[in-house]
Model the fold of this input.
Amino acid sequence: MIRGFTTTTTKIKNLLSKNKGVTKFSVHERKYLQTESPLIDQIDAKLDELRSNLANPHTTYLGRDLCLVKTKWGGHVVVPGYNVDVAVGIIRDGIHEPWTTRLVQESLKYGQTYVNVGANFGYYTSLGGIIVGNEGKVFSFEANPVVFAVLLKTIMYAGIPNRTTAFNRAVYRNTGSDLAFFFDYQFAGGGHLEFDKDEEAALGDGFWSAESIAPILDSDGRWVPAKGIMNTFRTKTLALDDVLKANEVDLLHCDVEAAEPYVIAGARSTIRNSPNLRIIFEWSGYSFVHGSDEYKDTVKNMWDFLKTEGFSIRHLLPYVHADGGIELSGSLSYEEFIVGEHGDYFATR
Done:
């Protein structure tokens, strides 16, 4: 197919070159050009795509269920093939959450400091590490030891170990607490701490298999996506203020499944001491509505603190315009925020 395309393209180009400046073609030449010439742009575009795919493989299998992906933005991320939430977009499209990816790209510069809380397999750690360069710093936190092991591989394959400090700890309002952590291998991006948990750890194999799927089916044998084959472990906590100390931070990026208010509670000194700070954090009004009174108080304290520090909070809309642009909502009121849709939110002074 490629050879045939090349032959047709070359023949048309040679014919046009041979007759450059001539307005008259033979009957045979005119008929050929009328038939084939309209295809030349499509053929060239297809050839370019094929050559690019052959020269730059999108995904490389590393063994042990791990894939190395070269992303659309030119970095590298290691992901496990069994994961079907975070890994799907990375493996299939070379990009994860393109709107948030773009926001990180627009919020960071060379030489700055990036803090990635809930780093998962390291997609954003890799992105941030490439942007800040050799003169910048990246602090990457991931509580799940299974995922943390993959994060370390991403840091190495991305070529950013010289600027990245990684912690296998849960970021919280204080240092030294011991908490339970729940996660499903297939949906590792949804791992979370024990906040009003109604989940129990599954017995046996933690991966989807004939022996393990009972906990995610209803009485009719129908898959319930909200259920998981949950694994559990204990994890220690760190407060960002205790880790970052005198470091000024330029971008604080949190994705910790409703625990963001606790992260902010443990980072007040850092936030006060970082005049250029921007914050990207995941939020869902569902978590607030169904949260405990203590959780609701923590959310209100986060809101009041950020407002006192001069921040406004906007919702990052989950799509990218045809020209690559992203869109943020207007500044939200507290009443709008606590019922906000699930997604990423952006706090700026």
